[in-house]
Specification:
This protein is 66% helix and 1% strand. β1 and β2 form a beta hairpin. The radius of gyration is 22 Å and the shape is globular.
Length: 488
Amino acid sequence: MASQLFATKPLDLLLKQAADTEHGLKRALRAVDLVMLGVGAIIGAGIFVLTGQAAAQHAGPAIVLSFVAAGIACVFAGLCYAEMAAMIPIAGSAYTYSYATMGEFLAWIIGWDLILEYSLGAATVAVGWSGYVVSLLKDLGLVIPPQFTAGPFLQVTLADGSQASGIINLPAIFIIGLVTSLLVIGIRESANVNTTIVFVKVGVVILFILVGIRYINRANWTPFIPPNTGVFEQFGWTGILTGAGVIFFAYIGFDAVSTAAQEARNPQKDMPIGILTSLVICTILYIAVSVVLTGIVPYKELNVPDPMAVGINATGLYWMRFVVKIGAIAGLSSVILVMLLGQPRIFWTMAGDGLLPRAFSKVHPRFRTPYVTTILTGIAVAIAAGLFPIGVLGHLVSIGTLFAFILVCAGVGVLRYTKPQIARPFRAPWIWFVAPAGMITCFYLMYGLPKETWERLFIWMAIGLVIYLAYGRNHSVLGRKATPPKAP
């Protein structure tokens, strides 16, 4: 059994699977589509919410430096992802990379772990989407009964001022159902919708930057780095580092590009472009927004759920509140789309390896999409978004993602040493530095997360271990030394 746990999947077998266009996924994505998927996944709650909160609580105007630090950490991981995705263009992302480098058991662990990032991430963002939609409809004179905008574990305020328990978050369920249907219909259609949404939300962000520049008060940037209060995470240089850990959530999503590797027309060339270009674009936008926002409004006033709206109010341009809300809704919609695109493809790949039931590996005969796993994922995420407040799970999303980043950085280093002869269409520069730096910075950010988050991660992993021992290891294609089953 020990030999099976650490058995790696042969790279020639992985490349053969990648080349199977008859039974595999439809290759329809260009480089620009992959860039848009990355931007669509990254620009969401982070830029519309976390920027102001991290500035108010941790870094002040120096939140700009926090974004730079978090961006650098992501670049290390992004370079490693780009090398792996170009070398192993398979839909399983970090799961597949781990299978090829560190063995079946760690591959299962990371596949199970990625559920935290994609499924719970989509559920969390869907709840945020619901809040923005309810607010916008209210501005337009359309009021949804509060009981149907929150789950049963939340208290809502009724029209008469009394308190009641929520029943179900219908808007959150609606957006999950809509996106799931779109993803079943086709990857090309999904990419087109995502690209349209990305243009809308990036346009809103750029409009905010261009309009806000005129209202900057340089006095709000003084002091640029507020003195530390004596508490580690409150301002000063340590506050900047803590701010980097908090806003790391804003960067989560670029790795979702790698889950579409098997649907890229030229993955060896286009995957690095998609991953790294989306990271650069979003980092520039994040820095610009943080500069403008802290210049318009004193940082202490930004500890609110809608800091960009506070910035707009400070300019007196109230008409832009609607524009910002529309941009936020568009931004969150594309995040949900990319998250729900990524998770089913990981399940699909794991099922092809025998670690999950074979039914999960089915591809729609007409649309060439993993429709079974897409529908199952959509149902599970809709239930979570409709019933539960997902606040604490945001930390679980972060810790799951950081763990995946660590394993990918380690995997690149392992392959460089054990299989130096393999063709690498893209080679991460200075791998002796980039891979360890990625692991160290990601672990540092994990270390700063609350103790309860680590406990929940261990519980989740324990559940996954039971499933692997009860099913996965007994049905593993690699363990049985058979050929992976082909999807009908």
